[in-house]
Amino acid sequence: MRIGWIMTISAAIAAAEAPPTPVLVELFTSEGCSSCPPADLLLSRLQQSQPVPGVQVIPLSEHVDYWNQLGWMDRFSSPGLTERQRQYAAVLRGDGVYTPQMIVDGKAGLVGSDRPAALEAIREAARTPKAAVALGCGGTPSKLFVRVDQGPAADADVALVIAENGLQSNVTSGENRGRLMAHAGVARHLTLIGRAKKGQSFSAEPKLAIEKSWRLENLSAVVFLQDRGSRRILGAGQIALSACAVN
Prior knowledge:
The protein is of the alpha+beta class. Helix content is 22%, strand content 34%. It has four helices and 14 strands. The protein has a five-stranded mixed sheet with strand order 5-14-13-8-11, with no helix packed on it.
């Protein structure tokens, strides 16, 4: 009996010391979409509460541009993020392109405001082993250091996103006219920084492109490994840029 208790306690200590499993949660949204505010709120709450034990939810709010011609120009939108959603639609073969759409770890698509479905998808994604992505301040103030010691399960694109919290817009036209819309984890800039080979280590020191209008204290860098064919996320990491002296 005593040995059993010791083993249980040891397992609990090991679980407490283990780093959380990162799960990338992407929300395709728009300030011109009247059904998007509940999804924006859910993404923010996932970020703040981190509701799944042992999991680090890494949220990205990705604003598409196909709502812009319908009464309100979303200042956070970009055609590149719209194309990213289309790439997912081609692989997932679900309901096509729509908002709000949540993609969990590149493999599960769901209505972005569906909290139970989101939590289940996050739990399921956390069961898949991932490559550990280590991030730190680079050798110069405006660079990031990226290291993957044990390579991904397949060849993968390595992407860097600059995300910003604490953003809001006073929407004066379109479907959300009169709303003050708040956003978390807004993808300000997304770029590929390299390609990781299956089972091989990877390192890079990309330059951080930060615009003066972005608030450093609200910025983070998100780096993820993504299988180009299946679009599945094979590893991810996040670091607050307030820890680095970015010029």
